């Protein structure tokens, strides 16, 4: 069996694995990324048609590490957010008054991945191995070994960026708290007849939230993305209907906020679940991004939270590097856990409960909801707090 050595072995080349590799490469570490998928030209898998809403705080970090300039070319600004209750008279409008800041940015996942991959190719201390499925891990006294079908990779630290069904977590039996939602998410990108005016909309229907995110225009066509949580059976039958019927159903749901739906460009269903690990580390292993936590997409914060893990890891690694301490020590892993766990736990709870409260159809909550909407709409302090949360500032 072939043997390779590096400082950091990253399992998974999703958005978290790629940005982690890029960020840590800035500190001079020798990094190997192992990805189970085949290289793109050999892939027969479905393309990820999703968009990601990147918060202002995440954008600042991406800028700090030198990735934002390239990503921004493919992004659309979110300047306003309109939150609308199922009774459409209840509304809250959010905007940001700070100069040069936006509430967020919307980028296609395929573009994000491409830009980050291109930046990584230029780094000669990073190797990306496709067709490399991690089977298990073993330990040496001061090293960790990733075992693959035909090779071993020995490193000082292993970063598990292998998503919500993490192999690493399963092999090490790291305990988690899991939740399966009754709903799935229907994701659809579409052209429409009117400008979106850089506004994101969130409708809270009783079967689940429906969000519209503004996207960059393509060939002079106004474009947006819909993410609609709803009953699994309903969505699996909806996605099979002809586009004319889907347009009619969605136009009824979203009204005329972006005009008529001109063309559906893509549609796909994602199953919804969430989890949080009891801890974000094992000996010489750190869980990062969706392998550590996955949350309901109601607030579009999942990858933003993963980016905060990466930022904390980068700052810790920088300190360790300056002190000449080897990365991956027990204290290093504990420090990472302390910096990331509480933030993730809090967001996990907020997104889960937000979904629960808005879906709840009890008489009492139905009566309280208009009061709640009115209270927030008229209270500038509360609004500022929520705006800062959406921007990733608290
Ligand atoms: C409908 C929907 C909308 C969303 N919208 C937003 C949004 O607007 N904003 C936001 O911030 N977040 C959003 N999210 C969340 C966001 O998509 C995820 O948080 C993010 O994609 C997770 O990236 P990751 O790299 O951690 O995991 P993944 O993307 O799951 O990547 C894991 C990688 O590891 C690889 N892998 C797995 N096992 C192995 C193994 N054994 N060996 C080698 N490789 C392995 C996989 O092949 C994969 O490439 C949304 C999620 C959903 C479902």
Question: Can you walk me through this structure?
Answer:
With 394 residues, this protein is α/β, with parallel strands linked by helices. It is 36% helix and 33% strand. The chain is built from eleven helices and 21 strands. Helix 1 packs parallel to helix 4, helix 1 runs parallel beside helix 8 and helix 8 packs antiparallel against helix 9. The longest helix is centred in the last third of the chain and has 30 residues. The chain is globular and about 65 Å long. The mean pLDDT is 91. It binds flavin-adenine dinucleotide (FAD).
What is the overall pLDDT average?
91
CATH topology of the largest domain: FAD/NAD(P)-binding domain
Assigned CATH class of the largest domain:
Alpha Beta
Task: Give the number of helices.
Answer: 11
What low-confidence regions span 5 or more consecutive residues with pLDDT below 50?
Answer: none
Helix share, percent: 25-40%
- Please describe the biggest sheet, giving its number of strands, its sense, and whether it closes into a barrel: 8 strands, mixed
Q: Find the count of extended strands (DSSP E, 2+ residues).
A: 21
Structure, briefly:
The protein folds into two domains: 2-50 and 118-178 and 275-356, FAD/NAD(P)-binding domain; 76-107 and 181-273 and 368-390, D-Amino Acid Oxidase, subunit A, domain 2 (D-Amino Acid Oxidase, Chain A, domain 2), CATH 3.30.9.
Tag the structure with descriptive keywords.
single chain, 394 residues, alpha/beta, FAD/NAD(P)-binding domain, D-Amino Acid Oxidase, Chain A, domain 2, 2 domains, binds flavin-adenine dinucleotide
